[in-house]
C-alpha cells in the first residue's frame, strides 16, 4: 500500500466510523419512513466507505490524501472529533436534564478546548513522535470518560445497560445461579449472555462505577491495536484508534457495554497478528460467550486456522469454545426459557433500528419475520464464498472477511444500535494494520 492509498483508506475509515455509528435523536418526533429516510445518507456513506476499505487497493483519492502529512491528518481528525463532542454536550445535558446532569462548563470547556488546541498544535508542527500522539489520544478520551463519571450519573431512564451488568452480578452474589435471569435484586432484567456481565463482575463485587472498567477496556483495546501494528506504519494505527474512541458517538455512549467487547476483540486481533493462537482462541471463545454480536466472526477464525494448517491450534480453539460453553451452561440449565427470552427474544419480536441500517429496507421486501433467515442465508453465502476461494490466508484476510460479516450482521439486524458498529470497526482497523501476506511459518 503506497503512502497516498494508506492515507486515503484512513480517511475512509474515519468516514465509516462517523457515518456508521451516527446517532440521530429524532426517532420519537417523526414517522418511521421519514426517520429511516433521514438515516439513509449515513447508511449509503457507510457502504461506500466500507467498499473502499475492503475492496481493491484504494487509488481514488490517493493523490488528494497524499498532499497532507500524517500529523496534519491526525491533528485535524482529533480537533474535529473533540470539537463535535464539545458541541454535542449542551444538547446531551438538555435532553437528559431530568437526570441531574450538572456539569461544570469551565472544566468541560477547558478540558476539551485544551485537547483541541493540542491536536491543532501537534498537527501544525508536523510532530512525528508516536509518544506525544498516543498520550494525547488516550488522555483526551480518559478526560471525557472521567468527566462523564463525574457529571453524568447513570440513570435507567437513559440506559439500563450497565445496570443490567451490575444486576446480574448482584443476583449471583445474593441468590446464586438460578436468580440471575429470573430474580434480579433491583428488578432490572438481564438481557446479556453470561460472559459479558462476568467480565464486569470483579467491579460489581468491589462496588465500583462500571464505567471505570469501560475506560480501562477502551484504553487497553487501543494499546493492543498499537502494539500489533508494524512500526513502519508510524501514525496510521494512532489515527485509527483516535477515530474509534474519540468519535463523538462513542464518547456519548459512556454508559454502553461495548468497551468490554472491544478489549477482548483487540486481544484477539493482537494475538492473531503475533501468531499467539492459544491466546487468540481463548479470546474468540470468550467473545462468543459475551455477545452474539461476535458470533459471525468465529467461523472465519476457524477457517483461518485451517488455511494456516495450524491443526494443534484448531483443536485448542475448539476446546476453548467448549470451555466457554461450559461457563454459560449452568445458567442455561438453571433457567433455560428465561435466558433464551432475555438474551434472544427481543431480537426476534419485530423491527427495531435507530441507526444506519439495511434491515428497514430489507423488511420493505420481506416480512420482518424472515429478516433473520435472510441474514443467516447471506452470512452463510459470505462464509462459503471465502471457503471456496480460500481467501482467508493471512491475518489481514481474516480481519477483512470478519469485518464484512460483522458489518452485514449489524446493519441487517433487529435491533440496530449505534454502539453495535464499534466491534466491526475494530476489526476494520486491524485489517488496515495487518500484514497482507501469510507468514511463512505455521
Notes on the protein architecture:
The chain is an all-alpha fold and 442 residues long. 68% of the residues lie in helices and 0% in strands. The protein is built from 21 helices and no strands. Helix 15 (298-307) packs antiparallel against helix 20. The longest helix is centred in the N-terminal third of the chain and has 26 residues, at 70-95. The radius of gyration is 21 Å and the shape is globular. It starts with a helix and ends in a 9-residue tail after the last helix.
On the 0 to 100 scale, the average pLDDT is 89
Care to count the β-strands? 0
The N- to C-terminal Cα distance equals: 25 Å
Taken as a percent bin, the fraction of beta residues is: under 5%
Question: What structural category characterises the helix and strand content?
Answer: mainly alpha
Secondary structure tally, helices: 21
Uncertain residue ranges: none
Rg calc: 21 Å
Biggest sheet, open or closed, and with what strands and sense? none
The backbone outline, from C-alpha atoms, is globular
Written as H for each helix and E for each strand, in order along the chain, the element string is HHHHHHHHHHHHHHHHHHHHH
Helix content class: 55-70%
Say what oligomer this is: single chain
Amino acid at each position: 500500500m503506497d503512502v497516498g492509498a494508506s492515507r486515503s483508506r484512513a480517511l475512509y475509515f474515519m468516514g465509516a466510523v462517523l457515518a456508521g455509528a451516527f446517532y440521530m435523536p429524532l426517532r420519537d418526533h417523526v414517522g418511521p419512513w421519514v426517520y429511516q429516510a433521514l438515516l439513509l445518507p449515513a447508511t449509503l456513506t457507510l457502504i461506500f466507505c466500507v467498499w473502499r476499505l475492503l475492496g481493491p487497493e484504494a487509488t481514488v483519492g490517493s493523490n488528494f490524501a497524499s498532499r497532507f502529512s500524517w500529523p496534519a491528518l491526525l491533528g485535524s481528525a482529533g480537533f474535529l472529533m473533540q470539537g463535535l463532542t464539545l458541541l454535542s454536550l449542551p444538547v446531551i445535558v438538555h435532553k437528559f436534564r431530568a437526570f441531574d446532569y450538572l456539569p461544570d462548563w469551565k472544566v468541560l470547556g477547558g478540558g476539551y478546548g485544551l485537547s483541541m488546541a493540542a491536536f491543532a498544535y501537534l498537527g501544525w508542527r508536523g510532530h512525528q513522535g508516536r509518544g506525544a500522539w498516543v498520550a494525547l489520544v488516550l488522555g483526551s478520551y480518559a478526560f471525557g470518560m472521567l468527566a462523564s463519571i463525574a457529571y453524568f450519573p447513570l440513570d435507567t431512564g437513559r440506559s439500563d445497560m450497565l445496570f443490567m451488568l451490575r444486576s446480574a452480578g448482584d443476583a449471583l452474589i445474593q441468590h446464586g445461579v438460578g436468580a440471575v435471569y429470573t430474580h434480579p435484586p433491583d428488578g432490572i432484567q438481564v438481557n446479556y449472555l453470561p460472559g459479558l456481565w462476568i467480565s464486569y463482575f470483579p467491579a460489581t463485587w468491589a462496588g465500583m462505577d462500571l464505567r471505570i472498567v469501560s475506560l480501562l477496556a477502551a484504553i487497553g483495546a487501543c494499546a493492543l491495536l498499537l502494539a500489533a501494528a508494524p512500526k513502519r506504519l508510524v501514525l496510521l494505527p494512532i489515527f485509527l484508534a483516535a477515530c474509534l474512541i474519540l468519535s463523538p458517538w462513542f464518547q456519548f455512549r459512556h454508559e454502553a457495554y461495548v468497551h468490554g467487547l472491544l478489549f477482548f476483540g483487540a486481544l484477539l486481533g493482537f494475538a492473531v497478528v503475533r501468531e499467539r493462537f492459544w491466546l487468540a482462541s481463548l479470546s474468540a471463545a470468550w467473545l462468543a460467550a459475551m455477545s452474539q454480536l461476535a458470533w459471525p466472526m468465529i467461523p472465519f477464525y476457524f477457517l483461518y486456522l485451517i488455511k494456516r494448517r495450524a491443526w494443534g491450534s484448531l483443536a485448542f480453539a475448539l476446546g476453548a469454545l467448549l470451555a466457554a460453553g461450559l461457563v454459560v451452561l449452568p445458567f442455561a440449565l438453571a433457567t433455560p426459557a428465561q435466558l433464551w427470552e432475555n438474551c434472544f427474544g427481543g431480537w426476534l419480536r419485530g423491527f427495531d433500528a435507530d441507526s444506519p441500517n439495511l434491515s428497514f429496507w430489507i423488511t420493505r421486501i420481506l416480512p420482518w419475520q424472515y429478516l433473520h433467515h435472510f441474514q443467516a442465508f447471506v452470512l452463510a453465502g459470505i462464509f462459503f464464498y471465502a471457503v471456496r476461494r480460500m481467501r482467508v490466508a493471512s491475518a489481514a484476510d481474516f480481519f477483512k472477511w470478519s469485518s464484512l460479516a460483522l458489518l452485514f450482521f449489524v446493519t441487517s439486524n433487529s435491533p440496530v444500535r449505534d454502539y453495535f458498529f464499534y466491534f466491526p470497526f475494530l476489526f476494520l482497523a486491524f485489517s488496515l494494520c495487518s500484514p497482507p501476506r501469510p507468514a511463512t511459518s505455521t
